[in-house]
Every structure is written in C-alpha cells, then in structure tokens.
Amino acid sequence: MHRGQQSTEFCWTGKQPHKAGAQNAKGEAIVNMMDHILSIFPRGLFGNNRPPPVVKEHAVPMEVTADEESRRKRTRDCETPIEVCENSSIKTPCLISRRELDIAVPSFLEEDDDVRPVKRFRGLNGILLTPPKVDVERGSVTPEKKLSLTSMPEDVIAHCLSFLNSAGDRHNLQCTSKQFREISNSNAMRIGIRVGGDPVTGLHGIILEDDTPDTAVHKLLPFAVAGNLEALYMLGIIQSYCQRDAKNGISMLEVASAQGYARASYALGLVLRDSRFDDALKYMRMAANAGYLPALHELLPAREMKEKFGEPTADELRRHLDHLCLNRLLSRHYIRSPDLRNLSTSHCWNPLCGRWAFKATVPANGVAAHPHIHRHHSPSYANQSTSGRQTNASTDSGVAPHEAHTHSGVKVSRMKMCSRCSRAKYCSKLCQVYDWRSGRHKMECQFL
Amino acid sequence: MEDAIVKLTSKEGETFDVPRKVAMMSKLVKDTFSDDDDEDDEEDETEVKEVPLPNVTAPVLKKVIEYCTHYQDEEMTPIQTPLKSGTLDELVQAWYANFVKVDRNMLFDLVAAANFMDIKPLLDLTCLAVSILIKGKSAQELRQMFNISAELSPEEQAEAQRENAVAE
C-alpha cells in the first residue's frame, strides 16, 4: 500500500520539507476556542442540543488563512444547525405533516352529519402548520408524475433520510436541492452520519487530504454539537494529539466514553496509561465489558485471546483501527511538525495508524525531573510472560507528546516495542497484531 | 368483537372489508373508533364501521391491507439504526423485503399512505426502502429521481460541494 510506505518513510527518515512556526500563534486561539466548546457539553449530556453563540465567535479566529468571504460563509454555516435544531427538537412519535396534506374532503361528507371522519379531519387541520411554498413549476413540468417524494411532508422525507448514514450520501443530498440541504443539516441527520467514513473500506471520511487539524476541527464541530459521538471522538483525538491541549481532548473523549462509545473508552485507556494508570485501567475495562475487541487485546493474555476469538485476519482487525481519514490527518500533522519529530518522538509503525509518542530518553526539558513519569508502572495490562512472540510487547519507555509544551500534566501514552527486532514500536497491541498479521512487519522484522 | 369487520373506502370509492384487528394497525382508524367509544356505548361493537380514506387509491390500499394482514402472522422486526447493511434482504424478513420491491411511484404512494393512515412499521419499512434507493446516488441522479429542478445557484452548489466533500 503506497500510503504505508509513505508514512513510514516520512517518520523515520525525517527528511520531508516542512513549514515551521505558526503553530504557537494558532495554539492560543485554539485552546481558547476549545475551552468554550467543552463548556457546551454539560457533564456528558447531549440532550442539550443548543450550541451557545460562543462557538460562532471563536470559530472565526481559527481561520488563519481564510479570506473574509469564506469566513462569513463559515460563520453563517455555524448558525444553521441552531435554527434547525430548534425546529426539529420537537419529535413526535407519529409524523405530523407540516405540509398541506391536500385532503380532498369528499362531497358526501361535507353535508353528512356523520361526525367521525369529519372530526378526524378537523383534528388534522388543527395541527397543520403554514404550508411552505408549493412548487407549482415542478408540477407543471412533469404532470404525469403526480407524486414524488418532494411533495411529501418534510418530516416524512427526514424520516427517509434518517436511514442514510454515510458521509458520501450526505454530500450528494447537500448538492441536490435546498430542501434536501436543510433536512440533511438537521441535528437528527447529523447525529447518525459516519463522519469517519465507511468502517469497512475506510473511504468517504469528511476529513480531506488538504485539511489541517484546524479545518478538520471546524468540520467536525457541528456534528459533535449535534451529538455525533464519532465526531466527538475524532475531535478528542485530534485535540489530544495535534492541538497541544491533551487535557481538553481527554475531556472530550471522556464525554464520548460516558455516552457509551467503546472506542473512546479504549482510546482513553491507551492515552492515560502513563499519567493516570488507574483511570486508564478503568476505561480499558469499560471498553472490554462492552465487548470491544482491541480492549480485550490489551487486557487478556495472548493465549486466552486466541482461545476465545481465534486469530482474526488483518482485514477483520482493520475496522477497529482509527478512521482512515483521522489517522492520515495525524500522520500529516506529525510529518509537518518539525518540533514534534525533533523531540525524539516515535511514530507507531503500523502504517495505517497515525499516533505517536515521546521517548523517555528525550534529553531536553528535564524529563527526568518531570513529576508525571511513573516508570514503575507496567505499560502492558496483560501478563507479559504468557504473551506469544508476536504479541510480546516490551516497554519502549516514553512520555506524552507535547510534554514540552503543555503544563496540564495529562499525557498521551508511551509506545510498545516488538520484542523480536526491538525496533518496531506500536501505540497499542491492536496495531502490533495488525501489522504482523497483515504481513508487513513479519516480512520486515527478520531484516532489522 | 374479534370478528368485527371494518370497511375501508379508497379514494375511488372502492370498499375493502378488513378484520377489525388488522385495520387497527392504522392509528387513523384506531383514533376514529376511540372517538366513537366516548359517545355511543359498547352495544354496537359488532356493527360494521366504515372509514373513508380519501387520500389512498385502491391499488395502494390493497397493498397496505396486504401488509397489515401479513403483519398479524409475522411481525416485522424493528429496523435497527445505524443500519448494518445496505440491502433490504439483510435488514428485514424476506416477505417484507419483497413487499417493497415495487416501482418507484407505488413506493412513494405507499409512503404517503402509511403516513396518512399512520402505520408506523409500514412507514419505517417504506422509508427504509426509499433511503436505499437514495443511497449511493449522485446529486444529478437524485434530482432526476425526485423531479427536482436544479434549485441551487452555482455559488450554493460550489459551497455545498466544498463544505461536504468527502475523501474518495
């Protein structure tokens, strides 16, 4: 896979051209903004669908390179979900038509004293809201098609569309018509969209190749505010790794985890492994209890895993990795941040993974004096002695990324090393097993 | 009471005799009856009642009744979201999957009828079928499918393109 080669090469040769600076300047604005974003989520509750206006104000300074025009557009876009969500927060179990149902009351009923059906109609009419503009033109163009989906009440269409959950379909809906656009901007629709792309193929994520962490955050924000856990999780990861603000990122992951998103619990289990070991273990167990396979990988000895789940192939494991577009974003960020690489960081050797960690041997900034390093903690939950060769992970002692920059004391986890070659480093067992089963490291290992 | 018959009248005036239990799947019919119960007492339970459905054509009504009748024998499993699969057959039982394999106009009529008669499972099923029609279609195809004349201005179009672009 060409991406794999690219990624590893970048990480280890470190010869890629890169743009320095600008990060710190942006950092301030972003930290500010994220503080406000977090204040939206009151103790893990998403019932509150109303983003405070503050999001809008602080979203703007993030656009460092954007010109005035696109700023205005984006700001306007932030407002849209607010309006929509207020309308759509009224969820009725039965779909009440917002459009005129065009009920032709039969003439025999109008004179009739029979109250039953008339009563029903009266009730219906009482509910009817003001009908939106009726498309006269459309009817006249194709009179033979008397009924099309768009002539139906909006909430029926919304119900139809609510079954769609891929970002690609959303894109097409957005480009189709104004009405579809409004509907697909509703929170009800946003909540179910797979922003990270298709879980099997990894395609169609909303983060593009030319997105920076900042623009990615901007894109994900409306989804996260609507209550989309996948978006919140991705925000949390971007925040922890790219925005020099691991603390906020971790709070986001905690919110997602509290909502029962196993992937977030698992990520927390990895990320907090060095700084808050007990919490990490708690989160990891939480994910494992939810039956999340990678968490079981971390907790159970390799032999037991094999007995219980057999040996999943690389393809089966792949869908547990982070979303492809998210991992690529992390990789790109790593490549383009010279300061990160100069501080002796290790990038996960799994070509599909974008995470990294600092090495403990980092000489600068007095790591040895850092109070948060707990070298006595075993980084692996599983019993090391029972691990097989390929899953036997020993410590490549490391500390969090951004150690030199954050003062939060919350760190992202260190790496594990392949015990056979003592070169390859992985952020998790999942990545290690994946890299081995996919055949890449198996081949590579013997030459290292 | 179990044998009570309800007459459902379509738009054209065609009448269908439907067992009360089957007809009760429609909340519209149910509400009509519960309104009655307040007024006249239970003495005329066996009386044949008639419900006019001026929004539903005969072929559609026939199909709806077919659905409701089958539902009594084999209840449809509720559709789970998020969808696990992209094909109808894997989401609902075979009978229901076949039930919505009809042409597009019929399907839209069914959606409208289900909405009007307020039959939740049928509405779910037909909406699911519609969403599967939509799935994977380009904006151009969607416009053709739903008879939408291009409503977006070029700028809006470009904006939508830019903001919602996905990695291919």
From TrEMBL, chain A:
Chain intervals for the UniProt region annotation (Disordered): 371-408
Keywords: Metal-binding, Zinc, Zinc-finger
Top-level lineage group: Eukaryota
SUPFAM superfamilies: F-box domain, HCP-like, HIT/MYND zinc finger-like
Ranges of biased composition (kind: Polar residues): 380-397
InterPro entries: At2g35280_TPR_dom, At5g50450/At1g67340-like, F-box-like_dom_sf, F-box_dom, TPR-like_helical_dom_sf, Znf_MYND
Listed GO MF terms: zinc ion binding
Gene3D superfamilies registered for this protein in UniProt: 6.10.140.2220, Tetratricopeptide repeat domain (1.25.40.10)
Residues in MYND-type domain copies: 405-445
Protein known as: MYND-type domain-containing protein
Automatic annotation (TrEMBL), chain B:
CDD domains (alphabetical): BTB_POZ_SKP1 (cd18322)
Keyword terms: Ubl conjugation pathway
Biological process according to GO: protein ubiquitination; ubiquitin-dependent protein catabolic process
Pathway as given in its UniProt record: Protein modification; protein ubiquitination
Domain SKP1 component POZ residue range list: 5-72
SUPFAM superfamilies attached to this UniProt entry: POZ domain, Skp1 dimerisation domain-like
Keyword field contains Ligase: no
Homology family: Belongs to the SKP1 family.
Domain annotation SKP1 component dimerisation: ranges: 120-167
Gene3D superfamilies documented for this protein: Potassium Channel Kv1.1, Chain A (3.30.710.10)
The name this protein goes by in its record: S-phase kinase-associated protein 1
Keyword Protein transport in annotation: no
Superkingdom assignment: Eukaryota
